[in-house]
Amino acid sequence: xxxxxxxxxxxxxxxxxxxxxxxxxxxxxxxxxxxxxxxxxxxxxxxxxxxxxxxxxxxxxxxxxxxxxxxxxxxxxxxxxxxxxxxxxxxxxxxxxxxxxxxxxxxxxxxxxxxxxxxxxxxxxxxxxxxxxxxxxxxxxxxxxxxxxxxxxxxxxxxxxxxxxxxxxxxxxxxxxxxxxxxxxxxxxxxxxxxxxxxxxxxxxxxxxxxxxxxxxxxxxxxxxxxxxxxxxxxxxxxxxxxxxxxxxxxxxxxxxxxxxxxxxxxxxxxxxxxxxxxxxxxxxxxxxxxxxxxxxxxxxxxxxxxxxxxxxxxxxxxxxxxxxxxxxxxxxxxxxxxxxxxxxxxxxxxxxxxxxxxxxxxxxxxxxxxxxxxxxxxxxxxxxxxxxxxxxxxxxxxxxxxxxxxxxxxxxxxxxxxxxxxxxxxxxxxxxxxxxxxxxxxxxxxxxxxxxxxxxxxxxxxxxxxxxxxxxxxxxxxxxxxxxxxxxxxxxx
Length: 494
Known about the structure:
Radius of gyration: 23 Å
CATH class of the largest domain: Alpha Beta
Number of strands: 20
CATH architecture of the largest domain: 3-Layer(aba) Sandwich
Number of domains: 2
Structural class: alpha/beta
Largest sheet: 8 strands, mixed
């Protein structure tokens, strides 16, 4: 068996002005040919191990990964896609293809990258089975489903099973090529679009319960090859956005249909459980003065770099400074213009700075004040888990500054948050701070804090809000909770 592997992996936010260029992919990693075997990408390594166990001949094409951002520039897409397809055309006698994608990438003209890639490749390679792996936050389209033979999504959030899903895809594809199975796939989507704040697969939340039930249904039936549960990336503005269930059976489309439809309806019935009560930064901080906790983790999810935001919000930082507490606070912000102001300064200097909301001004106003420079760093760190576990993160030249007891880490580049690695890159011990600002809606629970800790969800103006219905959608309007009276709509793609 000759099986090729590749992919173009990133996630878009159509409400962010942070374009994804080829430089972002170079930061994240572009692997060509034999370079695949040096990559520490869990999904790719899982594919390789699975194919090796099946004694397949592996044909590595191109795999390019970038951190989430806004739309992908046309030049970036054409450069990467041309490279990928040129390598594919050099190997036309393939038995199968696996592509590792995200599923929520959008080009600057608003089109869905993942669907375009699969449609184009299917036109040239119509006779071989094509499998793809995606994030469970993928936007599933009819064309995407019809352009491949199987879609397998990660089953964990926070994401931990990329290796396992890559290996599973390799095994199922090998069985398909040998004629042992005939995958039949169907997606049942329902008009529910919510943020990820209540969508952990850990614990007893609504998404965790649905995922556990669906995986049990998969395990209990020999003729069900794979199931995936999707919570659609809510920061896209695409037609017919839906969350829902995808089921792959062994040559039994009707059975797959019944199961996927069942879980789409269950998703709808649990829709209200995905909503979250939130407060503004000022409301949260005003309520904390008398609370006896060692740490308050302030989750400003509306400025999540992992959801495509720039990371330059200072809404919560402004309120921490207004609080004028004698307790230490630690915050993070991405602001290359502020870094430029600091680049010729020295540790210990007092500098007048403008911080925040300088890249995308519609979400707020900068802070203007005097700050003391405490430390600086090249901004390199190693991820301790998640999508990029073991990989090097690069937040660019970074400075730690302070005003009174408010410490602010200023980065040059947006980076994905997992377990406080950005703070650790500055040798900061989070346990020394009472107030800690994070901007990821899920991974903040990975912080290693001692003592009594309380988490607070803050929803401010920004491109990744918890309450997604506040965003100015133009193509997606018929969904819960945009309209609380919306009736259930189920669409099926197969």
